[in-house]
Amino acid sequence: MNKSILVLGTRGIPDLLGGVESHCQSLYPLLVDKYGLDITVTARKPYVSYSESVYQGVKLKALPTLKNKSLEAPVHSLLAALYAVKSKADIVHVHAIGPGLVTPLLRLFGKKVVFTHHSQNYDHQKWGKLAKFILRLGEKFAMTFATEVIVISDFMQDLMKEKYGRDNCHLIFNGVNPPQLPEQNKVAEYLSKYGLQSKDYVVAVGRFSQEKGLDVLLEAYKRSGINKKLVLVGDNDHPTDYSESLKESARNTKGVVLTGFLSGDELQSIFSQADTFVLPSFSEGLPIALLEAMSFSLPVIVSDISANKAVHLPDSCYFPTGDSQRLAKMLREKVGQAPVSYDEYLKRYDWDLIAQQTYDVYLLAAGEK
Fold first, then answer.
1. What is the set of domains in the chain, with CATH numbers?
2. In this predicted model, what pLDDT tens digit does every residue of 4-21 receive, in sequence order?
3. Does pTM surpass 0.85?
4. Rounded to whole angstroms, how far apart are CA atoms 176 and 179?
């Protein structure tokens, strides 16, 4: 396929925190390497240091936007859509429902649009009524006008068929890379930086926003009385009352360690030496952090939302969403357990397979399959 592809809907790559960002960073270099595609990923200038760059064969183009939680995605998506028209991209791959708003515009200019639905972001508590309306509209526009639609979980595939009658969505899971640890002395250095020792802590990774449920985990940790530290990896792009309150509460709780955003070797090191992983979210797409924790064979405790249940872990891994008392009980039961093999679960989250499936969707969108 001799087509140029432009990607919009991500803050940028490489090494930015976020599910969509991790997804793009893993997927597009593979598509360039395996299939020789000409791919440009648009990034948001406030988050990256480059104007133009290349990452493992993927062209990167930073475009301006407003660093405002409600406006930055729509403004950037509009500019990226206009850039796609100007640059004569053949296929535009749109990620997430907020950027989905520009799908009709792209179709109007004759572009083939592949849309990946990652999450029902309008379920996040951080959004007000207007923002939720816009996100729902973005979902509707994308589902109605996109040439091809990709969903990342079977429950989302069923939901989109029910809501929009779109029964031709392509189910392509998120993926996880095999663990790639730095040398042991570097691992020890990273642990020492945060006052940690191997297997002496429970870890959670995520943005400090309400839908991630980290306040529930913090309350459960206080209740549990476990003799382990709690490491919260993450922060928020824009300070909010919630994120500031969460950090203040964490600083005032003995045993809690705040690392801020982590990526690369440092994040891998923290994952590799943890005792247990917890994902207390109220809303997810298909959580890459959970898949990463599973790749390190960590015992996991996750909320029982549909996205987490779609991973089909044993029932003993799930707790009722928002129930800090039940989560505290599970912390007491799970910490100190032996590593768990998830090899059978992880087979379908292979990036080489995901790249092949995505390439097939591009062929369909281009009319070549």
1. 4-175+350-365 (3.40.50.2000), 184-346 (3.40.50.2000)
2. 999 999 999 998 878 899
3. no
4. 9
